[in-house]
Every structure is written in structure tokens, then in C-alpha cells.
Amino acid sequence: LATSHTLSQGIKSIGEFDLIICGKQTTDGDTAQVGPAIAEHLDIPHVAWVSKINEVNDRGIVVEQDLAESVEIIQLHYPCLITVEKDIVQPRLPSYKKKLETRDKPVKILSLKDFSDQDENKYGLLGSPTRVEKVFPPETNSERILWEGSSGELTNRCYDTLKRLKFI
């Protein structure tokens, strides 16, 4: 929460934008929440898990969202935010000439005084209501069962299964 709030404040202080591109997740917290949370703070549309950018034009962007069982094609209008999978593009290193041209370019450093929200309790550890205790891959279960029967039989069978698994 604190990270997304801080980044959204930095983005607001810079000014207008069309597209924000974030990675899917980090290796420290590994929650994949920062990008979408930035979009929520900025009140702009967003799509997570983008695996391909199909089209970019003056009004928006068309992307492919990689879901577990399917791929969705989504059109977003600017301003918007996407989070991308790590394999979406192969980054290239800047040329030696470009490094020389930009080596003395100043880097703008923002501080709390640059933000519209200057409440220190919303940043850093003070602004983080959660702590990551452990990062682990979720358990998966790909077991599938095909049932046949009348709607009444299937309803009872579904209910019994959900009750046995303690979902209800």
C-alpha cells in the first residue's frame, strides 16, 4: 500500500501521462499488487498479466492478458496502466554513444515536499499495514471430475462435494 501510494504521488507530481508500464511483481514482496494499486490511487483503468501488446494508437492500447486457462484481448483508453510478464520483450542495452550522451543528464529526485499528500503516516513502514512473512508458490490442484445426470442429481452432488470440502 505504501509503495503504490508513494509511486502514485510521484507520478502525479511529474504531470500528465498516457501509459504506465509496470513489471508483474517483485522478488521481495512477490504480491503483484503494486501496479494495480497505483492505478487505483490514480483512478485509471489497468490490466495485469499482459503477455503481448497488439496495438498502440493515439487513443489507447490493445493488449493480451494471460490468464491461467485463457488469454483475453483487452482495449484500454489512455491514461492507463499495464503490468507485464517478464518475457514480453528482450531488453537491449544502450549503445556506447547513448551512454556518453546521457552520462551528465541530471536525475530529478523527488521528496515528500514534492507530493500533494504530505502525511508521513502514508509512506514507508508507517504506511504499510501488512508485512510479508514468507514467500512460497501456491498449491495447485488440477484434479477434474466430469459428472453426468439430471439437474437435480448434479445439484445434490455439487452441494455434497462443496460441503465435504468445507466450502459451505
Structure, described:
- The longest helix has 14 residues, at 151-164.
- The protein has helices at 2-14, 34-42, 96-102, 151-164; strands spanning 19-23, 46-56, 60-66, 71-77, 80-84.
- Helix content is 26%, strand content 21%.
- The protein has 168 residues and is an alpha/beta fold.
- The model has no long low-confidence stretch (mean pLDDT 91).
- The two termini are 32 Å apart.
- A hairpin with a 4-residue loop joins strand 3 and strand 4 (71-77).
- It has a 5-stranded mixed β-sheet with strand order 1-5-2-3-4.
The residue fraction in helices comes out at 25-40%
- H-E string: HEHEEEEHH
Average predicted confidence as pLDDT? 91
Secondary-structure class: alpha/beta
- Number of contiguous helices: 4
Unreliable residue stretches: none
How much strand? Answer: 15-25%
Q: State the strand order across the main sheet.
A: 1-5-2-3-4
What's the total count of β strands?
5
The whole-angstrom Rg is 22 Å
> Distance N terminus to C terminus?
32 Å
Please outline the major beta sheet: 5 strands, mixed
Shape estimate? extended
